[in-house]
Structure formats: C-alpha cells, structure tokens
Amino acid sequence: MSVRAMLARVQRLEQVRAPVRSPFAVAFGSFEAFAAECEAGMEAGKLDRADFSVVLCSLARWERQLIHFSSSVAFEQI
How far is CA 16 from the centre of its chain? Predict the structure, then answer.
C-alpha cells in the first residue's frame, strides 16, 4: 500500500470518528439555546407548558444519549 493510499485511509477514518453535531446544535448553536427558546415560547404562551415541558424533557434525554446520532445513521442506511 502506498503512502498516499494510507494517508487517504487515515483521513477517512478520522472523519468517521469525528463527533456528530446534533440537529439542535446545527440549528440553534446548542441544545441549551434551543431549550431557552422553547422556554421563552412557553412563557409567551406560544407553546403549551403542560405538553411541551414533557417534549423538551424527552428531547434533552435524547440529546444526552445521542439518540439523534443513531437515528441519523439508521436513516442513512435505508
């Protein structure tokens, strides 16, 4: 195997191992910024506090457990 081929392979491996940003981080900069915007929406009455607090809690759990990563990988494989 040539040196160039090995370098190209290492580069591909490094790209695969790079951390994947969540959809919230991509869209809002961080999950915390998304949560703050949701809290503001609940305070303003745009989002129902009873329902959306449960949704926000679930999304926070998914964010901590990197569920978005496994879902996007599964989606890409379809």
Answer: 16
